[in-house]
Amino acid sequence: MNELFLNNYVIVYLFSEAVLFLIALYAFFKDISILRFWDFNNFSSKQLKLEKQSYLLSTIATFIFTLKLTLLIYFVYMIDSLSIIIPGAMCGAGVISANSYGMSLLFVKLITIFTFLLFLTLNNLDLKAKNYPLLKFKSWVLLAGLLLIFLETYLDIAYLFNIDLSVPVSCCSALFGNLEGVNPLPFGLDIKMLLILYYTLFVSIILSLLLDNKLLTAVTLILFAVISYYAVVYFFGTYIYELPTHKCPFCMMQKEYYYIGYFVWGTLFSALFFGLIWVIIGLLKYESKVLKRITVTSLVLFVSLCSAYVLYYYFKNGVFL
Amino acid sequence: MVKIENLNKFYEIDGQKQYVLNAINLNIQKGECVILKGVSGSGKTTLLSIIAGLDKPSSGKVLVDGEPISKLPDMHLSSFRAQKIGIVFQNFNLLDGVSLADNAMVPLIASGIGLKEAKLKAQDALKLANIDHKANKTPIELSGGEKQRGAIARALVANPNLILCDEPTANLDRANSLSFIQTLKELHNMGKTIIVATHDSLFEELDFEHRVVEISQGSLVGRG
Question: What distance in Å separates residue A170's CA from the closest CA in chain B?
Answer without folding.
Answer: 54
